[in-house]
Fold each of these.
Amino acid sequence: MDRIGVVDTMFARYDMGAEAVDELRHCPGHGTRFEILRRTVPGFKDLGVACKKLIQEEGCRIVVALGMPGRAPIDQVCAHEASQGIMLAQLLTNTHILEVFVHETEEEDPAKLAAVCVDRARKHARNAYWLLYEPEQLTRRAGQGVRQGYTDAGPLLPPAD
Ligand SMILES: Cc1nc2c(=O)[nH]c(=O)nc-2n(C[C@H](O)[C@H](O)[C@H](O)CO)c1C
C-alpha cells in the first residue's frame, strides 16, 4: 500500500495536520490504495528532516509539510531557512514535499487566519493526492490562478469561446 506523509508542528497555532489528514481520508483509495503517516515536530525548521525520514525510511511517496511563521522579523527569516530545508529534502529524495505555510501576519483576525489554515491545508492535501493519482486534475487547472487559503485569483483573460 502506498504511503502519504503529513508533518506538522507544535509551533503552529492551528492543527493544520489534522485538517490535512481528514482531507486525505476522504480521497478515493484511502485505506486500500494508500495509508497516511503523520508526524509532529517542534517547528518548521524541523520539517525538512522529518519529511526526508518519512520518504527514505518509511517509503512515503509524497509528503505534506505544514508550518506557521510567527509575526516577528526573525520568524520570517527562519521561514526562509525552513523553506530552503524543505526544498533540499525534495531534491535529495527526488520526492514532492508540498510546503503549507500560513504566516501569522496574513490575517489580524484569529478566526480569519484559522480559515486560511483550514483551506490551505485541505487544498494542498488534495493536491498531494492528485499529484500521485490524478495529475490531470492539476494540468486542467494550469494557468487558472488557483490559490490555497483564499479564493482563486482566476485567469488573466476570460476563456476564449
Ligand atoms: C525563530 C523561530 N520561529 C519559528 C516560527 O516562526 N515557526 C516555527 O514553526 N518555528 C520557529 N522556530 C523554531 C524552529 O522551527 C525549530 O523548531 C527549533 O529551532 C528547533 O529545531 C524558531 C526558532
Amino acid sequence: MKRVALVGLGTMGPGIAARMARGGLEVIATDTSGAAIERARAMLPVVRTVMDRLGIEPPPEGEAEIRFATGLREAVEGADLVLENVPEHAEIKASVYREIDGLIGPETIVATDTSGIPITKLQAGISNPARFVGMHWSNPPHIIPMIEVIAGEATAPETVGAIRNLIRSLGLLPVVVKKDVPGFVENRVLYALLREVVDLVERGVIDPEDADTCVSWGIGYKIAVIGPMALLDMAGLDIYRSVSSFLNADLCNRSDIAPLVEAKTGAGRLGLKTGGGIYDYDADAIADLQADRADKLIAIRRILEEGA
Ligand SMILES: NC(=O)C1=CN([C@@H]2O[C@H](COP(=O)(O)OP(=O)(O)OC[C@H]3O[C@@H](n4cnc5c(N)ncnc54)[C@H](O)[C@@H]3O)[C@@H](O)[C@H]2O)C=CC1
Ligand SMILES: Cc1ncc(C(=O)O)c(C(=O)O)c1O
C-alpha cells in the first residue's frame, strides 16, 4: 500500500495524515472546507515535532509527502486506500461513499474512522462492500498507538488482513474487533465510563474537577499499566463478584442523552473547539494546554514502551 486519500480534516484528519506520511505513505488529503485545509496545513509542523519527540522514525525511504486537494476526484485518484474522516452522521458518510464509488478501482480499500456506526450499515452504500472496513483511530491519532479494525458482514477477510498489516507496518497496534457491535470496543468502554461520570456530576455526587482527579489518578493511571481484565485478577474475582452483586443494579443505565449534555450542546458549549464546554478555556491558553497534554502523553508512552 503506497497512496492514501484522507477525506475530512477536522479534529482527527491532520494527525492521521501526518502519522501515515511519517510511516512512508503518500497522503492526499481533502475537505469541503477550505478553512479546515488551511488549519490542517498549519498544524503539521506541531504534529511532526510531537512525533519526533516520540521517536517515531520514518522508513529508510523517508517521510512521505502530504498534498492537499480541493476535490474528491483529485484526492482519490490512484489511491490504494481511502480513509473517510467526515462527521459522525451516517448520511454524510453515505454521500461521500456515493461520490467516490465511481472514482476508485476495484482494488481500492475504503476505510472509515467512524467512532461506532456499525460497518455493516455503512458498507450497504458502497458497490464493493468486500473492500470496506472500519479503521478506528483514537484521539490524538498521532500519539495514541492503538487502532481498532472492524469487519462488517460483507467485508472480506483479506481486507481486514491488509489493514491490520498496514497498521503494523506503521509501528502501531491493531486490535481486530470480532463482532460489528455499535461503538466497537473502545467506545463501548469509554461511553460506559462517561455515562456514569456525567450522571454522578449531574446528581451532585461530585464536582467535575474532582471527578477528573478521581478517574485519572484512581483508575486511569493504573489502567494504562494493568488492563481491565488483568485488573480483575489483581483485585480478585471474589471481590468483583461481591461488589458487582449490589453495585451493577445501581449504575446509571439511562439510554437517552443526559440533560447536562443536551444543555451544553444546545448552548453551543462543545468544549475546546468553542472555547468552553464542561470547563471554560482562555483562547490564548489552549495551545499551551494541548502542548502540556502532549508532553505528558509522550512521557507516559515512553515509559510504557521502554520501562521505567
Ligand atoms: N473527535 C474524536 O475524538 C474522534 C472522532 N472519530 C471519528 O472520526 C470522524 C471524524 O471526526 P472529527 O475529526 O472529530 O470530525 P470533525 O467534525 O472535527 O471534522 C470533520 C471534517 O469533515 C469535513 N467534511 C464534511 N463533509 C465532507 C465531505 N463531504 N467531504 C470532505 N470533507 C467533509 C468537515 O469540513 C470537517 O472538517 C467521525 O466519524 C468521528 O466519529 C474517531 C476517533 C476520535
Ligand atoms: C468522547 C469521545 N468519543 C469518541 C472517541 C473515539 O475514539 O471515537 C473519543 C476518543 O478519545 O478518541 C472520545 O474522546
